Description:
This protein is α/β, with parallel strands linked by helices.
Amino acid sequence: MPSPVTFRLEHTCRQSGARLGVLDTPHGPVETPVYMPVGTQAVVKAMTSREMKEIGASIVLANTYHLHLRPGEDLIREAGGLHAFMAWDRPLLTDSGGYQVFSLSGLNRMTEEGVAFRSHLDGSPLFMSPESAVDIQQKLGADIAMAFDVCSPYPCGEEKAREDMERTHRWALRCKKAHTREDQALFGIVQGAFYPELRRESARALADMDFPGYGIGGLSVGEPKETMYDMLEHTLPLLPRDKPRYLMGVGTPDCLLEGVLRGVDMFDCVLATRIARNGTVLTREGRLVVRNAAYKADFRPLEEGCDCEACRNYSRAYIRHLIATDEITGARLCSVHNLRYLARLMEGARQAIREDRYLDYMKDFYREFDMRGAFNRGETT
């Protein structure tokens, strides 16, 4: 059965090797490399679907685990599927719930069959298997579903990493067998923790399974950035050039650009909206904590030259006032800005690749961006 989601490699930057492509889906094309905002509960926090289009989002990610708990995949299917339910007519991707199982490890028990765990909401017992994870995602109806995988912790012994990787491979085959929805693509996920040989082995195994796309999982879980980049360099060359590569859970500006340099096509992360709710915004020069008293009488926009609604219409002083008085609009405006910042960053990356000057684009970024204000690893997932 041909995949309903295909990837066209449009250009490779002669200066850097970074990739420019188009992901064709049942709900339209997505230019890559692309940052995907995270809509955990079928909404990108504080944003409407119309606003997501205005900031330039072409694809959004939703969370299988959370939507399974509430309102439930059957209700969403009854509503006409996730696109109709959230009034989003552009492409959607759903994760498998594997990362949530990892993050709730204190509440779960894993066997070869699947994972028994308890709801973080009320403690009720739940069970998820590769087959049920696929069934939930088929009912949700996103354009792209992800295979159910096992995410290893950091740090992690090699024996444990191999055990998790091999189970991920077995579960990937079960997911493929269970997946029957013809208008939805199922992507596999590479694991292997922080062991180069395991990463290479996993990449080869997943490539042999012939998925229409590949996630790189198990990174951005607390390891140094240099370790993540090293794992990408061992993994990406072994994945098919004509299939999209998705680095899961990564969203700081420097990590996005470094991932693109190494051949990543897709990214997602909650960072942009999470820090926005705390009054922090991303700018060319690094992060700006607009809630700080220093901006009480600062009538400049959050970032000079930004075309988002917040920067076109409001000052730092006004947005700080909203945050100081617990007005929800302050968090909304910071979210609008941060999401637009990352969309613009990727737009610039695509243009630089097209013009064979991606290394220059990265040099310009690092020349301005204050890495002393970079985000710690715990804020990137």
